[in-house]
Amino acid sequence: MAESGGGGGGCCPPMDLMRSEPMQLLQLIVPMESAHLTVSYLGDLGLVQFKDLNSEKSPFQRTYAAQIKRCGEMARKIRFFKDQMSKAGVVPKEMLEKENDIDLDDVEVRLGELEAELVEINANNDKLQRSYNELMEYKLVLQKAGEFFSSAHRSATAQQSEPESPRGGEDLLESPLLQEEKSIDSSKQVKLGFLTGLVPREKSMVFERILFRATRGNIFTRQSVIDEAVIDPNSGEKAEKNVFIVFYSGERAKSKILKICEAFGANRYPFSEDLGKQAQMITEVSGRLTELKTTIDAGLGHRDMLLHTIGDKFELWNLKVRKEKAIYHTLNMLSLDVTKKCLVAEGWSPVFASNEIQDALKRAAVDSNSQVGSIFQVLRTKELPPTYFRTNKFTSAIQEIVDAYGVAKYQEANPGVFTIVTFPFLFAVMFGDWGHGICLLLATMYLIVREKKLASQKLGDIMEMAFGGRYVIMMMSLFSIYTGLIYNEFFSIPYPLFAPSAYDCRDVACSEATTIGLIKVRDTYPFGLDPVWHGTRSELPFLNSLKMKMSILLGVSQMNLGIIMSYFNAIFFKSSVNIWFQFVPQMIFLNSLFGYLSVLIIIKWCTGSQADLYHVMIYMFLSPTDELGENELFPHQKTVQRHQGQAYAPLDETDESLHVETNGGSHGHEEFEFSEIFVHQLIHTIEFVLGAVSNTASYLRLWALSLAHSELSSVFYEKVLLLAWGYNNILILIVGIIVFVFATVGVLLVMETLSAFLHALRLHWVEFQNKFYEGDGYKFAPFTFILTGNEDE
């Protein structure tokens, strides 16, 4: 175990997950002329976390506020282009050119020109499209209203040409109401006006009713339904409309109708009673529609060409603008020196990166033709450095699980080293079935094999989480196969994979599945559980006892590991007080009770004793002087237990209280508050004493979840698959197989996986990490360009 990693210098020191990388506080003094390039090179390096030296200033008071505003304006134009390309279905091309080959000023000019051109094209297109939609509505009005006038004209002509004859109740709707009134004085004739247009169909009935009431019935209205939806010129959206024609008398009625049309969003269009003019107008409108369609298509073609031109450079411009904005944000964190010719930066970096940072500073000075180089110096500080673990794609997911509980304090022992193995193993203890493990492994291998392609795609939230933890799931599936082989379960079915069963029937009567009639005829089954236990009446009591004791052994082992890690922390931080007055009492306390119980379990397994461990543990405290009788597992057990029962509480109390006093004296440089330290250690003592019992009991979830998984799998197999098989009906069998597959995938491979994952997570966060892990640090967040291209504003 490496107590401290890295060392100074070197490109790639050995990765050390046990302790975070040694960090240093840097001070960089950079000339103004090379500041931009220096920050750019350090962003490419991604190993410096800058401190904000201008925290008292508002964003508008900082040195580079104008440049950030300029970059923000360019970013707005790029978002506008992205939105336009998305609507047009244009996909930006991948970036082939280096961003260093372009100048920000050229990008700004080019973006301005393209935006102006695109805005002008869009405005012209909107005007043309509006005119086109208006003409389309006008054409429909001409057709529908023309049909109404033609019908009325034909009806009137027919009435005049017909001889007079009584028609009784067969009068047409268009015929006059007073047939007997033959001659009308021409001076009394009233000239009717009319308005035509389109009204939304859902408003048409209300529209007609309001017109009738507003004019007191002094109108005549006709409506005609348009079969296809039309595009409204005002909103640009498709809508179902009716063509209307309203006949009225008088200017007052006309003004009322116009206001009602405006209120209902009805578009009005001029119309002539003359049939000849109507035909002429339809011809003119059709011609103009054809011209507009041609013009609009040409404009859209030009717009698509412009968007493709933008798409060719979009990723390059986007990355350039994002980088420049990030650089200026970082430059705003630097302070001006007294001469205002240099910028002063402070920040954290790993010790191993010193040479790389100095090389970047030299390159920036040369490339910017600066006459003065940058100054690099390490500052001494008592400030707590950030925590930085260098991980790869295999260890990063496990480290994220640990960091979700709390980021490790600087150079504190990292639980992630052990979690890589213990997390998937404890999951597998609860999920042990090598059939289900193989299913998980196949799903994970698909993600791993196609990881390069999937990494570049946008996945859903759940799929993104599964893909990020693909290597953790792979380890979980491998351990599940291993524990499944130990439990001898393949979708709840046992298989004699490694040897025949060690037991056989004594006679035919033992076929009723009970171990009473079984005798041992071969050597013990070499690996895992003997398949003969499956289906017997003693299977459940036997497995319950086995898994419960196994859970206690695993829990005590992991808690002991946690306490041992606190010892290594104390050694690393040179705190002998924590060794003698925290580590030692905790080890004695835990192992005097549960360590002793674990030893008794192992002795009972090895000797085959019938001792009642419940009785042993309870009466060790209640009656330590009583004889053990058949519960005695080893010689002098009574003497050992008597000393434990009598000296247990005073031992822990004394040691922990000593910790209180000595711990205060070990930090002479800090202000000593006896009452505060006393209360803190008292709470710590109570928490550990109670936690030792509750944490051990918490590990029994391994037994409970394992039993639940096994029983659920057995129920699905016996009550679904075997039951369907027993009907000897192919249709029922197919239905049974489908139900079995969906139940296995939905319940056992999804819900049970999530349940076991969460329980394993709790065991690590609470039962394991609270023994040594403080987790009150903060993560190293260097200034880097790696994720700049993928981040959204």
TrEMBL record:
It is a multi-pass membrane protein. The chain crosses the membrane at residues 425-449, 470-487, 550-572, 579-603, 730-751. Residues 153-163 have a biased composition (Polar residues). It is found in: Membrane. Its main location: membrane. One of its GO terms (cellular component) is vacuolar proton-transporting V-type ATPase, V0 domain. GO terms for biological process: vacuolar acidification. GO terms for molecular function: ATPase binding; proton-transporting ATPase activity, rotational mechanism. The keyword Transmembrane helix applies. Residues 153-172 are annotated as: Disordered. Keywords: Coiled coil, Hydrogen ion transport, Ion transport, Membrane, Transmembrane, Transmembrane helix, Transport. Residues 104-138 form a coiled coil. Belongs to the V-ATPase 116 kDa subunit family. Essential component of the vacuolar proton pump (V-ATPase), a multimeric enzyme that catalyzes the translocation of protons across the membranes. Required for assembly and activity of the V-ATPase. This is V-type proton ATPase subunit a. It comes from Arabis nemorensis.
